[in-house]
Amino acid sequence: QSVLTQPPSVSAATGQKVTISCFGGDSNIGTKYVSWYQHLPGTAPKLLIYDNNKRPSGIPDRFSGSKSGTSATLAIAGLQPGDEADYYCGTWDMSLSTGVFGGGTKLTVL
Amino acid sequence: EVQLVESGGGLVQPGGSLRLSCAVSGFNFNDHWMSWVRQAPGKGLDWVANIRADGSEAIYAGSVKGRFTISRDNAKNSLFLQMNNLRAEDTAVFYCVTDSPGLGMRYWGQGTLVTVSS
User: Fold this and answer.
1) Fewer CB atoms inside 10 Å of the end CB: C or N, chain A?
2) Pairing verdict, β A85-93 and A105-109
3) B113 touches chain A (CB under 8 A)
């Protein structure tokens, strides 16, 4: 059971927009920055969003992040077949004093 | 070019030990906190431990506390994870990753597979 809750799967058609939610609590998302990661099987995870809504260099602006209260959202616009991957939210939990991830969301591009 | 290369994974019996290494290049290792993150087969990402840039403090997930030790050698641009008393549930791909405050987990290695089985 993950500390952060994500939907197991989402899907949308090529070119469309999809959002992935991440629900936590006061001790994690409510007080700490959230990051988002893309993970394709057999490869290293990739940082997409950090500090709730910042993109590292090289990440296209099709990827955006937001946070409200104890939840965070990753939005991917203009979906491409190459976006099919697992997506994870992550942050720090002040009560556990550990890093925490969501359980991951598998994105299918139809 | 930023590179993080893990090594030291393999097959070990329950109760055994392994030491993972992560060799870093392409950025100033001394400036970055570092973490180990693992992924068990068919499961999601699981945070294991992190260590401050100067090595002065380390924090562990409850599931590994007392069994795993994270350390670093800034002179050799290397991160380590000593894993003792390994259990079947520790079977996973282990990734080393930079984890400095305000930067997210930015640079990841390709991972090394640890299999705990008799």
Assistant:
1) N
2) antiparallel
3) no
